C-alpha cells in the first residue's frame, strides 16, 4: 500500500463535499445568506459546468480575512465546538469554498462597507490567493466557479448526457424556490446562458 499525496487527498475529499452544480449553488447561496444578503443573483453557463456565479449584496469579506477565506477549516462563524449549541448560520465548518477551489477555478470579488473599492481574488486549488486586482463591483461578494470537475473525469462524465444536465438546472431552480419560500423578503434571480429563467421576490400576504 502507498499513502496518497496530499493534493490527491484534497481533490478526492473535496469531491465528496462538492458533488454537483446544485451543491455549488447551495453552498454559495448559504454563504450569501449568512452574509446578510437581501439580493442574490445566480448565473449558470453551460448548465453550470463552464461557470457558476453567485453574486450578493451581503457584508463582504475583509481584506485581512481574504488569505484564509478559502483555506479549509477556516470560518468566521464559530470558534469552537461549544458554539454549535447556539448556531445561527448555515455554514460553520469552513469547508465549502476550499472544497470548491479543489474541484474548479475560483475567483472571489468582494467589498465590505469600510472599503472604497472591491478586490477580485484569483484562488488556487488549495484556496490560496494567486493574484488580486481592484474591481468595479459594488458592496457584497461575487463568487465565480469555472470549469467544475475539470480535473475529475468521473464526475464530469456523470453530466455528459443532456438529460442529466437539464435535470441539474431544474434542481437549481427547485433549490432557489425553496430559499425563496423560507426567505420571502429575499430578491433572487437565476439566469442560464444569459437567459433569465427565474426571478423570485415573494411578498408575504397577511
Ligand atoms: P463556512 O460557511 O462554513 O464558514 P465557507 O468555506 O463556506 O465556510 O466560507 C468561509 C468563510 O468565507 C466564511 O466563514 C465567511 O467568513 C467567508 N465568506 C464566504 N462567502 C462569503 C460571502 N458571500 N459573503 C461574505 N463572506 C463570505
Ligand atoms: Mg459556507
From TrEMBL:
GO terms for cellular component: MutLalpha complex. InterPro entries: DNA_mismatch_repair_CS, HATPase_C_sf, MutL/Mlh/PMS, MutL/Mlh/Pms-like. Transmembrane segments: none annotated. Pfam families: HATPase_c_3. PROSITE patterns: DNA_MISMATCH_REPAIR_1 (PS00058). It comes from the Eukaryota. One of its GO terms (molecular function) is ATP binding. PANTHER family: DNA MISMATCH REPAIR PROTEIN MLH, PMS, MUTL, PMS1 PROTEIN HOMOLOG 1. Belongs to the DNA mismatch repair MutL/HexB family. This is PMS1 homolog 1, mismatch repair system component.
Amino acid at each position: 500500500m502507498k499513502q496518497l499525496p496530499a493534493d490527491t487527498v484534497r481533490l478526492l475529499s473535496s469531491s465528496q463535499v462538492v458533488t454537483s452544480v446544485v451543491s455549488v449553488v447551495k453552498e454559495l447561496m448559504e454563504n450569501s445568506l449568512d452574509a446578510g444578503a437581501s439580493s442574490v443573483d445566480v448565473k449558470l453557463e453551460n448548465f453550470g459546468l463552464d461557470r457558476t456565479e453567485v453574486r450578493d449584496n451581503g457584508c463582504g469579506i475583509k481584506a485581512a480575512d481574504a488569505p484564509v477565506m478559502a483555506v479549509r477549516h477556516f470560518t468566521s462563524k464559530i470558534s469552537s465546538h461549544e458554539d454549535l449549541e447556539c448556531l445561527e448560520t448555515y455554514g460553520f465548518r469552513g469547508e465549502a469554498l476550499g472544497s470548491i477551489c479543489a474541484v474548479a477555478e475560483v475567483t472571489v470579488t468582494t467589498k465590505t462597507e469600510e472599503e472604497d473599492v472591491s478586490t477580485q481574488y484569483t484562488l488556487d486549488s488549495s484556496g490560496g490567493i494567486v493574484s488580486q486586482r481592484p474591481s468595479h463591483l459594488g458592496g457584497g461578494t461575487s463568487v465565480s466557479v469555472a470549469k467544475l470537475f475539470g480535473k475529475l473525469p468521473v464526475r464530469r462524465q456523470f453530466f455528459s448526457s443532456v438529460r442529466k444536465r437539464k435535470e441539474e438546472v431544474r434542481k437549481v431552480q427547485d433549490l432557489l424556490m425553496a430559499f425563496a419560500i423560507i426567505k420571502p423578503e429575499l430578491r433572487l434571480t437565476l439566469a442560464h446562458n444569459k437567459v433569465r429563467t427565474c426571478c423570485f421576490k415573494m411578498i408575504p400576504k397577511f
